Amino acid sequence: MKKSNSTSTSNEKVTGLIYVLFLFLITAGICGYILFIHNSDYYHFANGKKDALSKLERVKEFQNAQSDYFEKITDIDDNVNNINPNVNASYLKQNLFYTIGVVKKISSDNKYDARFRIFEQAANFYEMKLFDRERLSASQKNIEKFKLELENCRAGVETLKNN
Description:
Elements: H1 2-37, H2 44-82, H3 90-109, H4 117-162
């Protein structure tokens, strides 16, 4: 009786092993199907690569735009710093505003990419800087004018006191 018990146990072990192996193969097949085939055209990993390549292309495009317009922004900075608001050189200001407009246009041409807003922000900064320089110059002129009028008034009061 012991012999039949041990043989049935080994038969049960083999059958159990076959069942476990069969379940493992079915589970592996289902997982492989879900990962690689289901809802796919067999190249869904290639689509991710295409998306990554298109993003990389947009980054390169932005870097090229930065390098192309860096000289213009440097020129704008130099012109804003060197412009004399006391001198009425409207052609210089018009040229400066035209260049600022060219830089600002980059942002409106590439609205789909938020990185290009930096060009509009830089253009707005230089417009405000130029306006502030002109306003500061006008304020300084007014202060000088008022000081001169004050000195004239003091001189007039002194002459009236002396007479």
